[in-house]
Amino acid sequence: MQFIKTLNGFHPQIAMAFTQTFNGYQAQVGGLTLYVLEGFIPEAFKLDILGERWFKKGEVNVTLLNQFLLPEFQNPGWSKGIPIKFLQKEWKMILILIKKYITCEGRYSHVSMFHMKFLLHITEDTRMNLPFFILKSL
Question: With 60 as the cut, is the pLDDT of residue 1 above it?
Fold first, then answer.
């Protein structure tokens, strides 16, 4: 919850300048060079450095994901993701918030495996190293 509280404010021009110049380590915004290191992220977002250094291509125990799915959509094929309508109602809004504010994915009708891995982190079924995930997401 502390992480969500740190997400405050948004400036489209600054975000665009950052996005267009970010090379994985630094970005140029106006005359300022911003260095982005994994060690800075926990401090900025009040995150612990715990859990697996996981990103999009990592392994996921797919049987754990069934807890988020409606009974008629259990054990779907995950190769291309699934429609959001497969999710139980209580998880749809949480997943949309993850997609909108954390992974910045605009396809809200589609769910990928890495979004589901984030749900597993929230429910504490598995733990991700969130600073690593956020850095890789940039």
Answer: no
b/e 42-58 (16+ beta carbons within 10 angstroms → b): beebebeeebeebeeee
Q: Is the pLDDT of residue 3 over 70?
A: no
Phi, psi of 32 (to 5 degrees): -105, 130
Least confident stretch, 29-38, 105-114, 116-125: 105-114
Tracing tokens 């926990």 back to the chain, one arrives at 42
Question: How far is it, in rounded angstroms, from Cα 127 to Cα 32?
Answer: 35
Q: What is the pLDDT of residues 52-83, one digit of tens each?
A: 776 667 677 888 899 999 999 999 988 888 99
Could you give the 3-state DSSP secondary structure of residue 32?
strand
Q: What would the two tokens of residue 123 be?
A: 């429910």
Pairing of strands 110-111, 32-35: unpaired
Which structure tokens are listed for 63? Answer: 């049987």
Q: What dihedral angle (degrees, nearest 10) is formed by the CA atoms of 112, 50, 90, 111?
A: 0
Retrieve residue 27's tokens.
């970005």
Tell me the pTM: 0.68
